[in-house]
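Escalated from tier 1: pyridoxal-5'-phosphate holo job.
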Amino acid sequence: MIERATAADIVAATVRPEILALTKYAVAKAAGMIKLDAMESPFPLPAAVRARVAAAAADVQVNRYPDGDADALKAALIQAFAIPPTAQVILGNGSDELIQLITMSLARPGAAMVAPEPSFEMYRMDALFAGMRYAGVPLRADFALDPDAMETAIARERPALIYLAYPNNPTGNLFDRAAVERVLRAAPGLVVIDEAYYAFADASFMPRLTEFPNLLVLRTVSKIGMAGLRLGYAAAAPEWIAQFDKVRQPYNLNAMTQAVAPVLLAEHDLLSGWAAQLKAERTRLETALSGVAGVTVFPTRTNFVLVRVPDAPRWFEALRRAGILVKNRHGVHPLLEHCLRITVGTPDENDALLAALEALIGS
Ligand SMILES: Cc1ncc(COP(=O)(O)O)c(C=O)c1O
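Tier 2 regenerated the structure:
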């Protein structure tokens, strides 16, 4: 009898070695927990808005493909977020999808991506998936962007693509505007300013799109109350968007998202009220956390707070046992030693976190 190869044999012989070497991105199971790990909004929809969402969803023709260009949703976003009329917009199934398709579009053989580190991990992952050379540039010890080091890396790599998270995840700080401008001026290719946390930052490069032909501003609605819809958007000069639109899957935005997101985007007061409440809670949390023995709080312009604690794995586990899920960043990068990333929750959730920390100190 001829020995047949197993699936494992064929996988080992055919899948790219760099994929074989990876471990899957782990999304923690959170049923029944206070979820402070993923920068979601903690607020459920008010009943009246739920009813409008339900009505919009009920009208969706699920037997038909959605509008491939998602024109109505694009118009709603342009209006809601003051996107300059000279720019064009592309939508993604989350900004994750846009990061992937922008990276794929620029991954010419030999091309490089540059990003500061530590930053959002998907930049490096997508470089790997696209077969693009990746060069990380360490942030300073206080997590500031190092413009000299960035310029050196730019001169060395001549990167087709640079990602700057503004503010940065997981550090939470907002890079110095003049340092970002230096990167924009030095870069020979595209600079993506990823403004996932813009609603909490009071700073944006969106109004400056016309000033820099190599600037793309990337955003998401995930952090402002709509993570479940999976909707990201990018604005740049029409020349860029025309190319990225070729790489986009024709129906990447599903019909439910196209129907429901405009209903929520029209709720200006609700959205800005949520952001204001989270900023106020952030301030309260920063102050309270600074008073917890052994905790260092890093400045944040986002809806999360990065803290350094004496023993992050132990503290993470103690919080988990208390029913609170945060993100342990210890071991991810040397600058993040013993760091936990805590998403700002509702006042009650934040109180529960603080009480659990006090119990932990006392134990
Ligand atoms: C800096 C940054 N960019 C992009 C994303 C992805 O957001 P989404 O795919 O939900 O739009 C995140 C999510 O945490 C992020 O922190």
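The mean pLDDT is 97.
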